[in-house]
Amino acid sequence: MNNYDVKDLDQAEGGRRRIDWAEREMPVLRSIRERFKKEKPLKGLRLSCCLHVTTETANLMITLQEGGADIVLTASNPLSTQDDVAAALVNQYEIPVFAIKGEDKVTYFKHIRAALEHMPHMTQDDGADLVSSLFFIEMGRFEKLEPSLAAWAQGLSAEQRKQMLANVIGGTEETTTGVIRLKAMEADKVLKFPVIAVNDALTKHLFDNRYGTGQSTVDGIIRATNVLLAGKNFVVAGYGWCGRGLAITRTRYGRSGNRDRDRSDEGARSGHGRLSGHADDRCRQDRRHLLHSDRRFERDRQETFRSNERRRACCQLRSLQC
Q1: What are the chain's domains?
Q2: Antiparallel, parallel or unpaired: β 195-197 and 170-173
Q3: Which of 107, 142, 290, 295 pairs as cysteine with 150 (C-beta 3.0–4.6 A)?
Q4: What is the dihedral of CA 98, 103, 106, 108, to 10 degrees?
């Protein structure tokens, strides 16, 4: 393959091992992959994907490839790109990847251009950079594009720009920012193909925000600071799905914290992640348990002290008698 831009292909073997490790924790995707191998539902379709280039995304790309899709993957966030994973997708699975951890803005949009040149039938986006660039190019709004991307787009004929958009039959958008941008485009009547707002699915909020961000944020704080969280006061400012997940996860590290009032949607009020009710009761029970344990420890300590004093007095008495 020569259609890629990654940091170092020599990292491919390490990336492959990490992809395999992540796949063990993705049983649903694994079952879909087995079905895709037989049915090939995406045969003949070109997909351009602008996503976080991680082990989980890599398993998604491999699954889509097994389904017959012709894929190009670029990074939606250069800071989350895992270079060994990008190398493995190119070297081991022959999936074109354009992603380098820490890439600058010019390189980022150069990679967006590579995804557009793929002439996709479907898009997968995380932040709507790919889709918005596609529409700005079609409308001739070159001033909205990054200069290097605009220079390339201006070299295309009007027919080429229209054809680029005409090929697309649909797409997906993963995150809040992208959904907001797409809804604004829909309101302006410039969104010309359907996009599934994955961000609006309850499963996404639960697994990505509540459980995923809740765990990874606390894990990142521990790794960065190397402090013991038990007994610390932990303040969560903002109480959406991510904030609730962070608060819930925090209760498992000593269960001490401050929280904002839950002002979220109906799903959250029904108990999906708010730190109230049973969670607060559990905190109070734990505090009572700890208080009881402390009192019991102090009682045992005093009893041990008295026993030691009696033992010492007996020894002194015996020595006097001798």
Answers
A1: 9-200 (3.40.50.1480), 203-307 (no CATH)
A2: parallel
A3: 142
A4: 40
